[in-house]
Amino acid sequence: MTGGSQDDETGRERRDPDALIARAGVRGDPDQDQHFLVDDRVLDRLPSYATDAGFDTGHVLEIGAGTGALTDRLLAVADEVTAVERDPTLAAFLREEFADDVDAGRLTVIEGDALDVELPEFTCSVSNLPYGASSEIIFQLLPHERPLLVMVQKEFGERMAAEAGTDDYGRLSVTAGHYADVEVVEPVPKEAFSPPPAVQSALVRATPRDPEYTVPDDEFFLEFVTAVFTQRRKTMRNAVRNTAHISGLDDPDAVVDAADEELMGMRAGNVTPAQFAALAELAWEVGEPT
Ligand SMILES: C[S@@+](CC[C@H](N)C(=O)[O-])C[C@H]1O[C@@H](n2cnc3c(N)ncnc32)[C@H](O)[C@@H]1O
């Protein structure tokens, strides 16, 4: 194998991403969210964002394995990898290219849509996600309470990691932050991919932890937050009243009456997750959620 990069820890040579694409005989299809990572430097340091943070790499789940450039790097740090890939041609290629690891029981390739297949128990997930489904995939993974390192659209990653009072803060920040500490660890330029996506990318690390507040019911809290952010330009007073059909409150006026005046005059973008939680608690008690 030529053109690959050297791994410091094992001395094993990493597969060259361009050679993998050539051997697979494919061109990434943007309509299928296929943008393969071809920058060796990004690929080689990517797993270190997981290992440096102490992620348990006993069983790494990779969603959207493509031609396997990242799979190859993950096999160097993990005991076991499960790779999910929707494209049948790529899934077959992965099984053939990594036949030794498959035979050794270190790699399992699951062909199918990540949103439909049964996922195994995993200790962490490291993925260059299909951007068209990144939100759904992340919100399917977060409740597993396992660390995630995911490549996403930069803007999406910034919204996940945003603090209250900033332009990027919204439903995504509160709902992701409900499960994990979220940080953007590295912006990644378009040129790192083949074919390059239309947008810039970023690597996001989500480390699970309990939130600093309690909620009456996770599902209700997340629906309540989603509901009021659909009216982010309105005051909370109006947002709570106008979105009862989404939050499922039969008596939103009772919530507005019982809540703190000052909070009801704020816009959702300035309300902290802990304030949302307290309000959801109140709404659960007096708003007659259905
Ligand atoms: C951005 S590419 C990443 C490929 C590879 N991991 C890399 O870094 O070069 C995303 C991959 O996910 C696959 N994919 C797209 N939608 C998917 C889905 N819903 N479930 C599983 N795989 C999907 C695509 O076929 C593609 O191979």
Question: Which ligands does the model contain, each kind named once?
Answer: S-adenosylmethionine
CATH architecture of the largest domain: 3-Layer(aba) Sandwich
Oligomer: single chain
Nearest-integer average pLDDT:
95
- Integer-rounded radius of gyration: 21 Å
Q: What global shape is seen?
A: elongated
Sequence stretches where pLDDT stays below 50 over 5 or more residues: none
Number of strands: 9
CATH class identity of the largest domain: Alpha Beta
Return the CATH topology of the largest domain.
Answer: Rossmann fold
Strand order of the largest sheet: 4-3-2-5-6-9-7
CATH superfamily membership of the largest domain: Vaccinia Virus protein VP39
Which structural category fits the helices and strands? alpha/beta
Helix count, DSSP H or I runs of 4 or more residues:
14
Number of folding domains?
2
**Beta fraction of the residues?**
15-25%
Describe this structure in words.
The structure is a single chain. The protein is of the alpha/beta class and 290 residues long. The chain folds into 2 domains: 6-208, Vaccinia Virus protein VP39 (Rossmann fold, 3-Layer(aba) Sandwich), CATH 3.40.50; 218-286, Helicase, Ruva Protein, domain 3. The protein has 14 helices and 9 strands. It has helices spanning 17-24, 40-51, 69-77, 88-97, 99-103, 134-141, 154-161, 171-179, 218-229, 236-242, 244-247, 252-258, 261-264, 273-286; strands at 36-37, 59-63, 80-85, 107-111, 124-128, 148-153, 180-188, 193-194, 201-208. It has a 7-stranded mixed beta sheet. Strands 1-8 form a two-stranded antiparallel sheet. Helix 3 links the parallel strand 2 and strand 3. Helix 2 (40-51) packs parallel to helix 3 (69-77), helix 9 (218-229) packs across helix 14 and helix 12 crosses helix 14 (273-286). The model has no long low-confidence stretch (mean pLDDT 95). Its EC number is 2.1.1.-.
